[in-house]
Design goal:
The complex is a heterotrimer of chains A (474), B (376) and C (98). Chain A has 474 residues and is an alpha/beta fold. Helix content of chain A is 36%, strand content 23%. Classes of the chains: A alpha/beta (474), B alpha/beta (376), C mainly beta (98). Chains in contact: A-B, A-C, B-C. At the A-B interface, helix 15, strand 23, helix 18 and helix 19 of A face helix 3, helix 5, strand 12, helix 7 and strand 16 of B. The structure holds flavin-adenine dinucleotide and FE2/S2 (inorganic) cluster.
């Protein structure tokens, strides 16, 4: 049920953060079991990134976005029809002590309390630090797809897609459906990945990804110039992108004029909220990113906080729905003290298992090549503070042990994106330079606010006499 | 059995502001120095502080501390210039004068009394100050809110870019031939003949002399070499906003605009042990008070908050000491390590290096002061 | 450059970007409307003065910061357009004028 921020209650049994497949499924499930549940999402409508704008998309012809997209309609409808309170445009910026959730809606922060919290904040695109990636006109494939889904906007003029991963092929396919011309696809998939993958191939061949994925790729390859084996890539231009420059393994440099360059090399969990809530994370060697330490139910190391969906490790929309339900079941059991919903759990686990088949293959196949994760020279690593790869490497060589010290020295990670677009690069670059592992090097120590928030909203948080005393100096 | 690479004249334990400044000074005197520091996750006040170079109000109870502070602050311009020349980094030391804003008549009265007491106590006045009424305060800071009743002002107060300061010390230490070893938390120190053996998880390091500048860990390490360093953690939380065009021509004790433009709002004083989590109630209180001082800050976005632990000696004053049982072992630890950096970089190293310098009065800072009363 | 796929008879809104009337579709984010009108840069950075534009459109990169109805540093990709909305692009650090 959609509610306005003013109608929020002070207390809930369960607060779910993120209205993508995991969060929608979790909140609908909790509500159906009779729990008092609230669902927050910072976007203007439900659906998360995959089902973005599903209730408002101007592209009603189902064949454009594909049937996987429209599958989201039922999931969204179920959640909205349930008794769970859903608040749109609601940024949760802090999970404070004793289960207080600080949420900002239209510039006003409210503090609610929830006995259990399910973080379902999903994924974001992996940083793709190449020369010129900060030029206007260079965007992510995810961004381009959002423009398509929510505003029916498509690039006009020379357009190039570069990178690797299923989303890149899906976007190309969707563009072809609506007659957008793509001048080239620069495929950065590391060729060696194909060879390493033999042992996972069987699982993949029997998975749903294969039939879908290969069909898309086949259709795109027939219609668009695809250059494979890219080992160097850069965008060029003054005030905006004017051309893309690349080199393939065979060493040929080529340049193509373009006014839109769309980058993508996979997605990674958006960990900021969970990390700021002191959920322990570990480095995943297959997905090359940080993932929260969760058990079979998505429960984390922080009391009463679970993570479900891509935020707990990339597994896709189908798996996210299953994980959302499983996290909901855990919440229900914890709050009712009963081992209920055995059948539902079994079904959800079966579904999860089905979607997990073939995932390792995709993870490994689309592991972005090292040269696109480990930039060099004047390539910008931290977009907010304009910190370059050279600075990161030189400062690491000074003896700087990890991301927190280098953040203090160079300001990387201090800007408004709070490290989202430089954090992974910094961890990997420091690990490489120091000759140690990413797990050893670690990550930024994140704390609230998990999103920039006006000082006046901070001032509105609950406080008390003792706190006031601790800040007055005489 | 330490190999040559691990033998140093001086091992400085701790690479925060105190350790880095002392090591920098020793390296400048031609000494073969290594800093042994912990890894990335550490209690490191040097990257969590408020970056004030602050004079007003310092020294109540120990006038020698006020003099030492003043001495250090007077050295700041010279030191900043030296560091800039050597490291290429400008720490942006500025001394525009500082205000401590007061939000009620009662606060004014308390502040005025405290400062007066301090000046009566001190042998000679360590700093000039005045109490400003609301009108004068407003002339200096037109943006103050209606609740600001006045301020105390001291023209000597200033601030620096403290992150660049720490980085500058590290960069320049290496140019001076010093060595910085991270991931070398010192577990134990073993005095052995004419040298000290420092044990870390990554092997052992030997040095003729050892300087303890390990912040909060000094309390544990000092007794291993016959020293005493009673320091405790005192939590301070800080809020930082996005950057904004310069608007604050002075430094306010709890509101500061950095040279890059961010506004820092500080810094609570809490006795909570080794707990570095942030607390919404305290942050709210800090935000509230800052808004009363400058209502226009309300619109600024907060980008980051953190909690850091002050290294707080039992009585609040620095501890500089030399071991009697194990000559060659020193300890240096204090709160206000930013303010005192020039003293640590330019004066302490000479003392540690056993020149005839500097004043005996550094003996006032010996931990023996804690033992006088217990001995009775 | 971006174009709209369905140029149907739908109702358009007018927003003002740096004072210039700009048409937008209901449901557009401010960033989408700006991109549709050919504005692909929306601010200059405080560090280097370089021009930047929306990058992720999902609220994580903070490249799309603009001033909307007098409130500075808002994410253009997260805020839906409204009739008559006033948007200012940003130059360097924000000031207290905004
Ligand atoms: C909130 C706050 C605000 C402050 N504001 C100001 C201010 O405005 N002005 C001012 O002058 N001062 C201020 N200070 C104080 C100032 O930051 C400290 O006095 C100063 O940083 C202390 O430096 P340090 O080197 O002794 O300690 P730290 O910076 O804590 O450094 C200690 C170092 O020792 C290392 N270490 C610890 N144990 C071991 C071990 N066993 N082996 C090897 N290495 C070890 C640590 O990793 C660390 O690098 C503030 C402090 C705080 C917390
Ligand atoms: S475009 Fe990335 S936050 Fe708006």
């Amino acid at each position: 049920m959609i509610i306005a921020a003013g109608e929020l209650h002070d207390e809930y049994d369960v607060a779910v953060i993120g209205a993508g497949p995991a969060g929608l499924a979790a909140s609908a499930f909790c509500a159906r079991a009779g729990l008092k549940c609230v669902l927050f999402d910072d976007q203007t409508g439900p659906g998360g990134q995959i089902y973005r704008s599903i209730t408002s998309s101007p592209l009603s012809r189902h064949c454009v976005l594909g049937k996987d997209y429209w599958r989201g309609e039922t999931i969204v409808r179920d959640a909205l029809a349930s008794d769970a309170h859903y608040v749109a445009g609601a940024s949760v910026w802090g999970l404070l002590s004793s289960n207080a959730v600080a949420v900002s809606v239209s510039g006003i922060t409210r503090q609610i309390r929830a006995a259990r919290i399910i973080i379902a904040t999903g994924a974001m695109e992996r940083p793709f630090p190449i020369q010129g990636w900060t030029l206007p006109g260079v965007m992510t494939c995810g961004a381009a797809q959002i423009l398509l889904k929510s505003s029916a906007l498509v690039p006009e003029g020379p357009t190039v897609l570069a990178g690797c991963g299923p989303l890149l092929w899906l976007l190309a396919w969707q563009y072809l459906n609506v007659g957008v011309r793509i001048d080239a696809i620069l495929d950065t998939t590391a060729q060696r990945n194909w060879h390493r993958l033999f042992r996972h191939a069987v699982a993949f061949a029997t998975s749903s990804y294969m039939t879908e994925g290969l069909r898309l790729m086949y259709q795109v390859r027939r219609a668009v110039r695809v250059v494979t084996g890219i080992v160097e890539l850069g965008a060029e231009g003054g005030e905006r992108v004017e051309s893309v420059l690349w080199r393939t393994r065979r060493g040929r440099f080529e340049r193509l004029p373009c006014n839109t360059l769309l980058l993508h090399q996979g997605v990674v969990p958006n960990v900021n909220l969970a990390m700021s809530a002191r959920v322990e994370h570990r480095w995943s060697d297959t997905q090359l990113c940080w993932v929260p330490n969760v058990d079979d139910f998505g429960s984390t190391t922080a009391p009463a906080i679970a993570v479900a969906g891509d935020g707990a490790g990339i597994a896709g929309a189908g798996a996210a729905v299953a994980c959302g339900q499983i996290a909901a079941i855990a919440a229900i059991r914890a709050l009712t003290n009963k081992a209920s919903h055995k059948d539902e759990e079994r079904n959800a686990r079966r579904m999860l298992h089905r979607y997990q088949r073939g995932r390792t293959f995709l993870d490994l196949l689309y592991q972005p090549a090292p040269h696109f994760r480990l930039p060099r020279g004047e390539t910008i690593v931290c977009r907010c503070e304009d910190v370059t790869a050279r600075q990161v490497i030189e400062t690491t060589l000074l003896g700087c042990p990890g991301p927190n010290q280098i953040k203090a020295f160079l300001r990387c990670g201090m800007g408004p994106c709070q490290g989202r677009f430089c954090g992974l690069t910094i961890t990997e670059l420091m690990a490489e330079t120091r000759g140690s592992s990413c797990a050893e090097v670690g990550y930024f120590h994140l704390r609230p606010p998990a999103k920039p928030i006006a000082l006046s909203e901070f001032a509105g948080l609950r406080s008390d006499e003792a706190a006031m005393k601790a800040v007055v100096r005489e | 059995m330490s190999d040559l690479r691990n033998e140093f004249e001086f091992a400085v334990v701790g690479g925060g502001l105190v350790g880095a400044a002392i090591a920098w000074g020793l390296a400048g005197r031609g000494r073969h120095v290594a800093i042994l520091d912990e890894g990335d996750i550490a209690y490191r006040a040097s990257r969590g502080n408020f970056a004030l170079v602050w004079v007003q109000g310092k020294g109540g109870g120990m006038s020698r501390y006020a003099v030492w502070t003043r001495q250090s602050v007077d050295l700041w311009p010279k030191f900043a210039e030296a560091l800039r020349t050597e490291s290429g980094l400008d720490v942006c030391f500025q001394q525009p004068g500082g205000l401590h804003l007061l939000l009620s008549e009662r606060e004014i009265e308390n502040r005025a009394n405290a400062l007066k007491r301090l000046h009566n106590e001190a042998g000679r006045a360590p700093f000039e100050y005045c109490i400003l009424d609301r009108a004068t305060t407003q002339r200096m800071l037109p943006q103050i809110g209606p609740e600001v009743a006045g301020a105390s002002f001291c023209p000597l107060d200033g601030h620096v870019n403290v992150l660049r300061l720490l980085r500058g010390l590290h960069v320049s230490l290496q140019r001076r031939g010093g060595t910085y070893l991270s991931d070398r938390a010192v577990q134990t120190i073993e005095p052995s003949g004419s040298e000290f053996r420092l044990h870390t998880a990554h092997g052992q390091i030997a040095a003729a002399k050892v300087v303890l500048a390990a912040g909060l860990d000094n309390a544990r390490l000092a007794p291993m070499v016959g020293l005493d360093a009673p320091v405790r953690p005192q939590r301070g939380q800080i809020i930082v906003t996005e950057k904004v065009a310069p608007f604050l021509p002075y430094v306010i004790q709890t509101v500061r605009q950095t040279d890059e433009g961010s506004v820092m709002i500080g810094d609570s004083v809490e006795e909570v042990g080794f707990d570095t989590s942030v607390d919404g109630k305290i942050l709210a209180a800090m935000a509230n008070r800052a808004l009363k001082m400058f209502p226009l800050l309300g619109k600024l976005n907060v980008l980051r908050c953190w909690a850091s632990l002050r290294v707080m000696p039992k009585d609040g004053y620095p501890i500089y000491d030399q071991s009697e049982t194990f000559p060659g072992a020193y300890v240096a630890t204090c709160h206000s390590g930013v303010t005192l950096t020039p003293g640590h970089a330019l004066l302490l190293p000479a003392w540690i290096d056993h020149d005839n310098l500097p004043d005996e009065s550094l003996t006032d800072f010996s931990a023996r002061r804690f033992h006088v009363s217990t001995a009775q | 450059m971006f174009r709209r796929l369905n140029k149907g008879p739908e109702r358009l809104l007018t927003i003002f970007v740096d004072g210039a009337p700009t048409s937008a579709r209901p449901g557009d984010s401010v960033a989408a409307a700006m991109l549709a009108s050919g504005r692909i840069g929306c601010r200059t950075t405080a560090v280097s003065g370089a021009v930047r534009g929306p990058f992720c459109l999902m609220g994580v990169c903070f490249e799309c910061l603009v001033t909307i109805e007098g409130v500075a540093s808002l994410q253009a990709c997260m805020i839906p357009v409204r009739e008559g909305m006033r948007i200012e692009t940003k130059c360097g650090n924000r000031t207290f004028g905004t």
